[in-house]
Design goal:
Layout (H helix, E strand, L loop, with lengths): L15 H28 L2 E8 L2 E3 L2 E4 L4 E8 L4 E5 L4 E5 L5 E6 L4 E6 L12 E6 L1
Parallel strand pairs: 1-4, 3-9
Antiparallel strand pairs: 1-2, 4-7, 5-6, 8-9
Length: 134
């Protein structure tokens, strides 16, 4: 004869529990996905867009952290330009209408000059800029 005063050993789930479990699983998955994206983004070099037109780089002053890895995304407007950072040993030709990517890494604190090293007309000697590391 069964004892009717004995509490139930197995509780039946309420109708809200499966929905709560799905919500917790979805939230956990979203947090994990965001964490993975953040880790990948933290390791990726920063992209710096630099546009060249006769006698001017825009921007012509760039701030970097010490030892920061970057990718310069270079474009030219009117003629083939050169983008050179002699102190870092990197350079590229930049034809009009193209996007040229150039990787570089800053060193210690200080300033680094960049310049156009392809003659582009009178005023070419003023086509330069500075990277401030600090």
């Amino acid at each position: 004869m069964p004892d009717t005063d004995m509490p139930a050993l197995i509780a039946r789930p309420s109708p809200a529990q499966p929905a709560r479990r799905r919500w917790l699983a979805a939230t956990g998955a979203a947090i994990c996905a965001l964490a993975a994206l953040t880790v990948r983004a933290a390791g990726a070099p920063r992209v710096i867009k630099v546009h060249a037109r006769r006698f001017v780089f825009t921007p012509n002053r760039i701030a970097l952290a010490p030892h920061e890895a970057v990718v310069f995304e270079l474009t030219a407007e009117d003629t083939v330009m050169g983008f050179s950072i002699p102190q870092l040993g990197v350079r590229a030709d930049v034809p009009p209408g193209a996007v040229v990517r150039l990787a570089a890494q800053a060193g210690e604190r200080g300033t680094i000059d960049f310049l156009c090293d392809i003659f582009c007309g009178a005023g070419h000697e003023t086509m330069n800029g500075v990277i401030v590391v600090g």
